[in-house]
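Reader question, answered in our methods column.
A reader sent in the components of a multi-part assembly and asked whether the whole thing could be modeled at once rather than chain by chain. We filled in our standard form and ran it. Here is what they sent:
COMPLEX SIZE: two components
ENTRIES:
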Amino acid sequence: MSDEYPSLLRSERMSLVQLFVPTEVAHDTVHELGELGDVQFKDLNPSVNPFQRSFVGEIRRIDDMARRTRFFDAQIEKEKDVVPVRPLYECAPLLTVGPRSAQTVDELDTTLSQYESKLTTLNESYQTLSERTRELTEARHVLRETAVFFDKAHTQTSNIRSSFDDSATPLLTSHDDREGGYSAGSFDLEFVAGTIERSRVPTFERVLWRVLRGNLYMNHTDIAEPFIDPSTNAETRKNVFIIFAHGDVVLAKIRKVAESMGATIFPIDANADKRADALREVENRLEDLQTVLYNTGIGRRSELVKIGESLRVWQDVVKKEKLIYETLNLFNYDVRRKTLIAEAWVPTRDLTKIQLALRHATEESGTSVPPILHELQTSKTPPTFHRTNKFTEGFQAIMDSYGISAYQEINPGLFAITTFPFLFAVMFGDIGHGFIILIAAVYMILREKAMAKQDNGEIIGQFFYGRYIILMMGLFSIYTGFLYNDLFSKTLHLFHSGWTFPDNSTRGVYTGHTYPFGLDPAWHGATNALVFTNSYKMKMSIVLGVIHMTFALCLQVPNHFRFKRKSDIYTNFIPQMLFLQSIFGYLVLCILYKWSVDWTKSPVSPPSLLNMLITMFLEPGKVDPEKQLYPGQGFVQMVLLGIAGVCVPWLLISKPYLAWREMHKTTGAGYVTLGNGEETAIARHSTDETLEGEEEGNGRAIAEGDEEHEGHDFGDVVIHQIIHTIEFCLGCISHTASYLRLWALSLAHAQLSEVLWSMTLDGRTDPKSIGGWIGLGIMGFMWLNLTIGILCLMEGLSAFLHALRLHWVEGNSKHFEGGGYPFAPLSFAGEGKEA
Amino acid sequence: MEALFFNIDNGFLEGIVRGYKSGILTQNQYANLTQCETLEDFRTQLSATDYGGFLANESLPLSTSTIQEKATQILVDQFNYLRGNAVEPLNKFLEYITYSYMIDNIILLITGTLHERDTHELLERCHPLGVFESMPALCVATTVEELYQSVLVETPLAPYFRDCLSANDLDDLNIEIIRNTVYKAYLEDFHSFCGTLGQPTQDVMQRTLAFEADRRTINITVNSFNTELSKEQRAKLFPTIGRLWPEGNNQLAKADDIDQVRAACETVSEYRTFFNDAGVSSSSAHGNGGIDDLAAASMLEDRFFRMEVFLNKQAFLQQFQYGVFFSYVKLKEQEIRNLTWIAECIAQDAKDRIQDFIPIF
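And here is the structure of the entire assembly that came back:
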């Protein structure tokens, strides 16, 4: 057991443990471990089908319970008036451990099914009732609408008649002929009336038109209010239609079409009095029905309210139980089926805590047989587990989304805590903007507890998760803002400027006193300000970049020591370091030297460092005296170039050579490599097994057989090293150039904030009239909004992404190995958060 | 060239459909499914596949028809998604796929009405891909003429029906004739439409459709033995495409028993194997020809399905063509048939026949 203090530098030390759990306490043990959330169980029967495992029956039962809770949830959600659902933390917990656990679950099961059947019956009766209400409502509509139609026909008889006279409609004309015309008030024409879904009206009309061979006299009106299906909440809109026709065959045909198109047909009498009677009756029945419906609705609602009180607890229990049984399915039965055997990864540090939990579980369940835990020796790679707190969590997540680091590898997430916000701030440097995001972060941190509980939505949730990153970014941005002397594109005069402008001249005179911290405010507004800051920020980003890469490269060393690959230090680390330093380290030194020289007093003009670097490659050893930075430059550069040149073959050849020598030594000593690693593994395995048989089969991991044995082929080493060399050498150049994004983003940010200021507030800050004040108000509002929206959010996001890239690509490529798999412990808390 | 521009309009959908395709159940998953003891096991097993929790909210006990219905619903949803995102001419192509379901639905409704089944029950049994607006009104018609005039004239199927207006009264034989005439017209139309779509689609689709046509031709021949269908009528029902056309079709039109059918199919090497066992069994037990023909036909049917699956799988080997959409729908349909079969076998405890499904991948 290691006693070192938990740190983020390396992932937690893990142990593989074996648990012997008596069947009686298995459930409670897993429950306890799930509450603890510190144990990752291994699947001991990977070849067994999910439905052939031991606890399928329980899982199936719990699935059914889960379905019931989902049904309740859906019902509650569908209810129009909100049904209060008591949140989980306000409910009394339902105990599912201890000796009575089985009964509790049984009771819960019966309660759930009782509620379900009750609710289903209520739903059904509600459904039938609303169905009948709907029918009656439709009937009422049909009666009313047809009445309107008949009334209209009465008053317009003359019109109808004249129009029928010259009408070409054969059916009506023939009718007209036979009956000898209409007399007002006597309608002998037969008709079909009913309701149909509005979307179907055109099709209905078309089909009827064709079926009746063009002799269609149809009238339809919309029903204003929609009908709502109580079970699905779907809205349907319907139309009342009335079709006039004559002849039984035709009428039967119309009815059939109407029925097949989903219309409802109502018997309507042609007599106005009878219609009025029918309407009255329908209205009476409707009223009765609505009372009953209302009462049923109330009954259903009260049932739902009762369910809502404990629904969350049920859901919680069901979820936990399901998780427990799924975990139990990973276990193995021993021969006599008395105990379950489990294997799990646990952090070595927490072994005692887990022992305690196991004892607690035994006490809870009221039995005297405790589960037995013992550690196993294994050659398997344990999962990677970084113990984070709420501050480091976000930074670790940034690195984990690039890749999970190998077990016990140096963790870049630790260093990201400072480097990440710093590189961000180099791009985002502005006191004001930094302050804004700082305030946002501080607000989120102060309201942490309240915000953690509520559902923040996707976007706010993301920001909330990264609140400590934002806090650090804000602090660092304020710091770099001071360095750049930038406050919403204005400057601060904290100290006396080192420059004076005598007699309104535009040429500054140096007073001989240096501005103590950050950029001299005199540069602000100077005509050559941009030239100066560009050169300054560009060089600074190269310096920072080389420092960051050198640091990342150094992180290899502890890895090489930890994984016992000392030869890698002089086959990989040293040549890489020399290569980087002899080219770019030298460039950084030149930059620093150039900054330290007062070029106004120098006889030569300042040389361009970029050209210097290019000529260093193109014409090694030759330096134009005009452009010389220091004496002896040519020789130094030639030596450095030589070192860099030597490093390439060194890096390329030394590691494969060592591997080859090693191989030669083993074959020379008379050993022969077996065809593949597997055979040896199998051979060893079988001897192991016989041994184990004698030793009663204790102390060996059950699921050990599937370990992959990677064949370290010589060819692989060669290819890998070639790729690595090319990648590193080209990477050095492109990555250094890549750090120039620090300059570009910082420049863009400064320029953007300056443009925003000049376009909104410039010249308005001292209003003289009321109009001026109003203008200031509007513009100030605009400026504030754009500052937050564009400069802080959008620019911040872009700077964030670039900082992310610098860490993932430029930083991690120098040392990160990755390939680990995350520690995923059984935990009830985590599951709760996801849902 | 098609490779250059195909993805502009159809790249997304092809990606989607290939993604869907990788969700089709594999041999392994079928092996797991066939081991299930109950339908609940079946559901648990399916939830580990691409079907996911599609049955999670169904209350127990499950029925095979629910499984089939829900699985079809998934296919329909996927198809509608594809269709909603498609542009011409893919849109038209997808529409053509639905025509075959429309034909099936129409025939189902007419037959149902003839036997005086309940209209609503019939409507529920219709395939959701082939539903069209005025479909319910089909129940009213009593003659083909009326059918055409009142409903079909406004559907895209109208041209296909034009050829069979001569049949006056609707009886079972006539409906069968109508179905085959319409299907023949549909296949020919689809075939020529695919011809307008340019090279890779044309290639893949015409191969699949040719097989479909041959299958119909052989089926019609086999099923018309000992019926009142005359040989001239039979010949009229054969699609004029396919690999058997024209010589094979001519021979089939004159065929009187299954041996002559086999002889007609000799020219196409792929079809030769279909009749191998069938021929042997028919010659070995000549006495009870009726039952034996039935067995041979069902075996033939099975082989046709296998061939269809094979051809549809082939369609996925080529990129930049529409064949994948057609093939996906057909494969998924086969998968649903398989699922239903397995579920049915589980439900009826007929474990010995559970392996009789057609594996896809």
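What stands out: The interface with chain A takes residues 32, 35-36, 40-41, 44-45, 48, 56-57, 59-60, 119, 123, 133-134, 136-140, 146, 149-151, 153-154 of chain B (CB under 8 Å). The radius of gyration of chain B is 21 Å.
Send us your own complexes using the same form.
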